[in-house]
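Today's session is about reading a structure prediction critically. Students often jump straight to the picture, but the first step is always the sequence itself: look for stretches that repeat, for charged clusters, for runs of hydrophobic residues. Only then move on to the predicted structure, which in these notes is written as discrete structure tokens rather than atom positions. Here is the chain we will use throughout the hour.
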Amino acid sequence: MAKMSKEYWEKRQHEREAKAYSSILEVEKEYKEALERARINISKNIAYISDKYMKDNRLSHNKAMKLLLGDDYKAWKRDLHNYMKEWKQLKRTAPWEARKLWLEIETLSARSRMNVLDTLRAQIDYELIQVSDKAVQATGKALFAVYGNTYQEVVKDLGVKSMFSENMVKAVIDRPWSGANYSSRLWGNSEKLARVLKQEVATGLIQGINLKTMGKRISDRIEGAKKNDVERLLRTEVNYTMNQATLDGYRDAKIEKYTFDATLDSRTSQICAGLNGETFELSKAVVGVNYPPMHPRCRSTTTPVIDFEALGKQLQRKEESDKLTEEEFLAVRKYIGGQSYALNESLRNRRELSDDYKQWSRDLDKALDKMPKYQGEVTRSIGFFGQKEQLKEFLQIHKVGEDVEYPAYTSTTKGEIYNPDADILVKIKSKSGRDISSMNKEEQEIVYPRNSKFTVVNFKVNYGKYEIEMEEKDE
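Below is the predicted structure for this chain, in token form.
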């Protein structure tokens, strides 16, 4: 059992890492696309200047200092309004960056004259400000979801109650864990790239470099940022967030030790390779020393050190009146262990089950039939982690007087509310929910079989949280 359980934990951690890793790839793609749009816009402006002011495909420093007149100056003033719009947005999302942008706007607005070089520099700033603002917001949402999903899966696997809250997540992702947090790093990368691009422009004009060559240099700089800075930053931040969620789950489950796991990193660094398989005390975990991430793009993770024999004995405490077969017992244990997420997701979306899932469901159905029925109120906490459309869809089908059917197994608790900070709290007057708490003392879990039906009898909102009351529907 100990060996199987250790392999199970390694597999679960690898699945969680892969899930977290894939979630940031969409943000990475959007970030790179935004940088590409910025590159195109800057290149267009260089091409325009090239057509209007160059001679022999070159722009002299004197020409670069040429004042904008007529329509060009009017167009520049219109662009200044775009800066103002961006400033208003940044006031809400990035106050520190907004203050810096405001100083720039004031400086530009105060000028009655503007030269060609100034317009190129200002456009670089403007384009990269837009890129960074959107990237910071998208990254924050993605990291929030990574933490929430990882933490709740870890504590579920460990059989303890979730202590998840939004403040808990913000404290982690906003923490300057290696001198800065994700937001500061994104803005810092943007400022660094802006300085490099403006230097390319200034140097090119002073040296009289061909404008086509200048455009190529700027494109190369942006391509380098897309490949190196974007990937390195986002992939490192997602590894940090996932591992911090795991660490918090260990703490809540009273885990005392963990084992370092570097097997996922295809290009394992020397330091990660040296730590692989090593066991450390949880109280002495330090990021970058003995806890991942250890380096940029790190994909290492950890597994908890558990007394699996003691855990096995605990799980075998069940009602003596209805003995479960070994297959039925293992089906419940597997459900409690956290693999229920994948099974329930398939059932909820009415997908064709694999042969393994079909057998598991059959064994679980038989096991639940043997478990005692629970009478009394049970609760179910549901979090949507900022996914407003899914929350809206759930509320639309849970209206007072309406009947709802859950194609998946439905887990509830008869003890304290599982997660008081969740978006939705469902209360059910149980008469036939199956009591499996003898196999999971921590959660006091009551499970409803698949395809259970309920009637919504009450709905209310308390301090921005939704509360739904339901009754079992008699067949």
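Discussion point for the tutorial: Residues 254-308 form one domain.
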